Amino acid sequence: MPFSCFPSNLSFVLTEHEAYVFHWTTDNVPSFRSPDGSREQNSHAAKQTTLLTAQFPKSNPQVPNCRPYFSLLVITRRLVRTNIEPRVTMSQIANEGKHEKILLAFDFDHTIINDNSDTYVTKLAPNGKIPPEIKALYSDQGWTLFMSEIFRYLHSNKTTPKQILECMTEISFSPGMVDLLTTLDQTKAEAIVISDANYIFIDHILTFHGLKDRINKIFTNPAKFNNEGRLELEMYHVQDSCSLSTVNLCKGQILESYIEERAKENVIFTHIAFVGDGENDFCPSLRLSPKDFVFPREGYSLVKHIEKMKAEQGLHIKANIHTWKSGLDILKILSDKVPLLVQPSL
Ligand SMILES: [Mg+2]
Q1: In this predicted model, what pLDDT tens digit does every residue of 303-328 receive, in sequence order?
Q2: pLDDT value, residue 76
Q3: Residues 169/175/177/182 CA torsion (nearest 10 deg)
Q4: Beta bridge partners of 102
Q5: Which residues are part of the catalytic machinery?
Q6: Which residues surround the ion ligand 1 when the cut-off is CB under 5 Å?
Q7: Residues 302 and 277 sit within 8 Å (Cβ to Cβ)
Q8: How far is the CA of 186 from the centre of ligand 1 (A)?
Q9: Statement to judge: residues 110 and 145 lie in one domain
């Protein structure tokens, strides 16, 4: 069957009882990669269970009308002498057009970075102190209003956008987080941020440290510096359907919407991992399935909150729970589950 769209690669697992044969009719000869070395051949019998990746070069520009044709035949070796039908063909996969990935959804404060950006910025206030009347505005439902008043206070005390942005770049990353973000193979994993901080902080920190392109999407409260240099903040959304979340940000809703949106774009997440530290990370964690992962930061409030919500409200997380101290702990667990999750060069 001809394909108008050629995949750049295809991964499949071969067990020790199987062999594969590839057929193609163009010079788009795929090359195969396996954990035990490179291969350049169109058939292979596995000695052990092996994950193989076929990488297809781009179409030959000299043959613009080339209509590639190929199929993948996986054969059970014990039946190799019989006329069995192919178990899976490229046409089946291509017709479905699905791209399977793993999704890592991250909280930001005390998860990607090792501090709370909203409280860190208050060091720019006179004597590093926020007046009691502004502190009194804080409530679980009113974090955005509270932060808006803090930014108004900083502005009235001549704090500049440059000072605020420079202050953000001082914050260090949580242990192993840069390693985790930079070693994920982006053809197999997507990373998103869902945070109750604000877009200016998150965007600036990630961009300054060269990590912005490692994040597929940032979901957070919109923010911008106005003409006078005051940081203006908006709620991400206004919701009353989830009592586990604040009115301005239900991380569970955002996560589910993103999964649906990507499914419409033919990206299916085989596993979802939520990485967080705080109580507002409970809602998205609760929505995950037994094939997914919740990574609460060791020693932070989400760990106890998970136990509390189970004991007091019978809210039981179905996903696999693993605490983490370092992003490398997360990488190890996910790599065991998803072979070749890290980039091949590492
Ligand atoms: Mg947090």
Answers
A1: 999 999 999 999 999 999 999 999 99
A2: 47
A3: 90
A4: 189, 271
A5: 107, 109
A6: 107, 109-110, 277-278
A7: yes
A8: 24
A9: yes
Q: 284-299 as b/e, with b when 16 or more CB fall inside 10 Å? A: bbbbbeeebbbbbbee
* Whether 14 contacts 33, CB under 8 Å: no
Write the pLDDT tens digit of every residue in 262-308.
Answer: 999 999 999 999 999 999 999 999 999 999 999 999 999 999 999 99
Q: How far does residue 333's CA lie from ligand 1's centre (Å)?
A: 21
Q: Quick one: 210 and 233 in the same domain? A: yes
d(CA 316, ligand 1 centre) in Å: 21
Helix (H) or strand (E) holding 71: strand 70-76
- Residue with the two structure tokens 């923010």: 223
Shared domain check, 260 and 154: yes
> Helix (H) and strand (E) counts for the chain?
11, 15
Provide the residue range defining the domain that includes 171: 103-337
169-189 tens-digit pLDDT: 999 999 999 999 999 999 999
Task: Give every residue of the chain whose pLDDT is below 50, as ranges.
Answer: 1-6, 23-27, 35-40, 60-71, 75-95, 346
Q: What is the largest CA-CA distance in the chain?
A: 83
In sequence order, which residues have a C-beta less than 8 Å from that of residue 170 and are 6 or more positions away?
A: 120
Please check whether residues 115 and 208 belong to one and the same domain.
yes
Q: How far apart are the first and last CA of the chain?
A: 37
Q: Are 316 and 310 in contact (CB under 8 A)?
A: yes
Same-domain check for residues 93 and 114? no
- Asked, for residue 74, whether it belongs to a domain, the answer is yes
Residue partners of 10: CB distance under 8 A and separation at least 6: 30, 53, 54, 56, 72, 90, 93
Q: Specify whether the backbone of 251 is left (phi greater than 0), alpha (psi in -120 to 50) or beta.
A: alpha
Q: What are phi and psi of 161, to 5 degrees?
A: -55, -40
**Ligand 1 mean position, distance from CA 296 (Å):** 10
Same domain (yes/no): 245, 269: yes
